[in-house]
Design goal:
Length: 466
Amino acid sequence: MLASSYRDCQAWRAEGLPLSTSSNEACKLYDALLTQYVKWRNDETLGGFEGCISAIQAADPNFVMGHVISTGLELVGTTSSTRVNERLASAVRRTVALANSQDITPREKLHVKAMELFSHGNFPKAANVWEDILVDHPTDLLALKFAHDSYFYVGAQLPMRDSVARVLPYWKPHIPLSSYLKGMYSFGLLETRLYDQAEKIAMEGLAMTPDDAWSVHAVAHVYEMKAEVDKGLKFMEATQNDWQISDVLASHNYWHWALYFIEKGQYEAALNIYDSEVFKRCKATGSMLDTVDACSMLYRLEMEGVCVKDHWRELLQVTQPHTDDHVTLFNDLHFLMVSLGAKDAGTSRSLLDGLQELAKEPGDNHQHQLAKTLGVPMCQAMMEYDQGNYSQTVDLLHPLRYRIVDAGGSDAQRDLFNQLLIHAAMKSENKHHQKLGRCLLVERDAMRPDSPLTERLMQRALALHD
């Protein structure tokens, strides 16, 4: 039996968020699934996400919001695309058909519309529809979370922050999961460089809910962006027992931990985390968050001069089946790191060709619209770098510097492309590029004083071009 704390039909109605089903069981399972999504955690007593999704189907096969949350979760996971996955495409069509055949609330209709837009790759429009819901229903947590994820995928930092700010006053302490908004708000604050405020809000969240892994993650970002490495290491270690139970986010938090080691030049310690946590989890889950973290970690280590070639070949087994997905540019760029690292020219070529093809007729797909001017040249820059053509890398990457945010992800995740540009500029034969590399390091030092990584790169630049 489900815990009595999960909300039934009457409880959802009382909150002004009625669900169109007469099954109390379905309502409670919807709540249970939403709770796992917010906590980034599979609850084994419920059979995890998968068990809940099956149970919702069984409790009421025609429950529209049951379909919205189940299919929506698969879509926002970006592990598959309706373009290449017929099962997923038909799940979306079934949800739309069910919604059209029933008398459901205007709020539920908007949820269906947003999910359908997202499934076509129209992330910005989907987010707008979820925001429309939040204007009338500021405590609709599913709308808030789905909007948050959409903003993340398009690098919409201000909307991500303000989306939570707008609804915060409506969330009273008695509303289930209200403390988790702190971590979400903190993340928006830090992505808009308001680090002190972000840290304060995340710590408030942790004071209320110590095992809120997303608040931990926000604090990890703050220490990363300010290069407060030792603080970060201490914090991750001190809170590890609280956040590692959130299995959906644990790998990403371990990734943050490893970044501090890379920053300090402690590559062995970083690789240990890669082997024991990050790669192990990404292989087991196939989760895209875990997978891109594994990719970026190896790429960073390789830029730092660490040999990781056997690791690349193992990771290729995970990424290669996704070569034709093209759900997000962010994923594509990370898959390319792996095929380049593993020296699999065929897969690299195939990924780029596929992206170029989709860029010709992108339709409403926001990511494919960006492919021509952003995704393709970034892929080409990485390929040139891999070939040792450093000045071409700079020529491709430098003009895109301030647009890379549009590829999605967080500042911490995208920092890898800043590092790539610096490495390419320093290695380029072109004197102007070498000066540019030094300028970029000075700029980096201004934003993150006392960064050991910046210091190492500055030393290298001096040694190279004396």
